[in-house]
Write a structure and sequence with these properties.
binds iron/sulfur cluster, Alpha-Beta Plaits, 2 domains, two-stranded antiparallel sheet, 10 helices, alpha/beta, Rossmann fold
Length: about 300
């Protein structure tokens, strides 16, 4: 079973739209939407949710007013100024409270309260799902607004997708990875068998592509590159492919700019399903060349 990841150096390159189309070309794949901060593969693939679980990560302190003796030790020790004095709701006595949004979950107050008046619950930071789609099973997730630790959630979604692939004897896990080069991207790439980096023919696209390729090189993952909307700036597309080759990556095709891509998205269809002729042919070529490359890659 191979695990292949689609990523981009930054958002807005058309990565998810391309991934949805590739999913339709992969006959026996499990999909994993690991772009957990802005998951939108579901908008095209309309998953039918079979399983939903809370995603728990990190802790938050909360003081039980009934047990607090108002010594103020927790407030003095909290380096995030998350604890403030308050009046006990029943008798007005001095107690302390935690401002949930300011608590970083370090635990210092919990360990130092002389009367154990502070709870330290694990937080629900989102949810993850296992669903059916018309292009196969999909593991996906939603991170709560402002929640952290998306790298951990990415790893969890990948793990679920791998388990489905093993259980259902599927030979490919196709991952829609997050943009950028941060912790979630590292979590999406580590241990994968190959990566397709989607970029666009702009100066920032080239810059971000090289950063992502450096990361893939560091993680020793065979990298393929696809330039989306290449015909907007053909010379820049040539330069990007040359730079990608110099960085050790393999160009596997170009996808033209076509309003049909947006029209397909509005209808909840992949570009292949919308039968967007030349545009769909571009994507079929990318898929074939990427699969050929992935087969030969170590
Ligand atoms: S350390 Fe404990 S008892 Fe003292 S103010 Fe904080 S919560 Fe209350
Ligand atoms: S857990 Fe840490 S950050 Fe949160 S209130 Fe206690 S000391 Fe402050």
């Amino acid at each position: 079973m191979k695990e292949l990841v689609v990523i981009s150096g930054k958002g807005g390159t058309g990565k998810t739209s391309l991934t949805a189309s590739l999913a339709g070309l992969a006959p026996n794949a499990v999909l994993a939407d690991c772009d957990v901060d802005a998951a939108d593969l579901h908008l095209i693939l309309a998953p039918d949710i079979r399983r939903r679980e809370d995603f728990r990560s990190g802790h938050r302190a909360s003081i039980r007013a009934a047990d607090c003796i108002g010594c103020g030790r927790c407030a003095a020790l909290c380096r995030y100024n998350a604890i403030a004095p308050a009046a006990h709701p029943s008798d007005g006595a001095r107690v302390f409270t935690v401002e949930a949004g300011a608590c970083e979950g370090c635990g210092v107050c919990v360990w130092n309260c002389p009367v154990n008046a502070i709870d330290f619950e694990e937080q629900v930071c989102g949810a993850w799902f296992v669903s059916d789609t018309r292009h196969g099973p999909m593991a996906h997730a939603r991170l709560a607004p402002g929640a952290e630790n998306s790298g951990k959630l990415v790893s969890l979604v990948r793990e679920q997708a791998r388990e489905i692939a093993k259980r259902e004897n599927r030979d490919l896990v196709l991952v829609d990875g997050p943009p950028g080069t941060g912790c979630p991207v590292i979590a999406a790439l580590t241990g994968a068998h190959g990566v397709l980096v989607v970029t666009e023919p702009t100066v920032s696209g080239a810059h971000d592509l090289l950063r992502v390729l450096a990361l893939a090189g560091h993680l020793k993952i065979p990298a393929a590159v696809c330039i989306n909307k290449w015909d907007i700036q053909p010379e820049q597309a040539d330069r990007i492919e040359a730079a990608a080759r110099a960085a050790g990556a393999t160009p596997v095709g170009r996808v033209r700019y076509d309003k049909a891509a947006t029209a397909a998205q509005r209808r909840g269809l992949t570009i292949i399903e919308a039968d967007a002729n030349s545009l769909a042919d571009d994507i079929r070529t990318v898929w074939k060349q990427w699969m050929d490359f992935a087969k030969e890659a170590p």
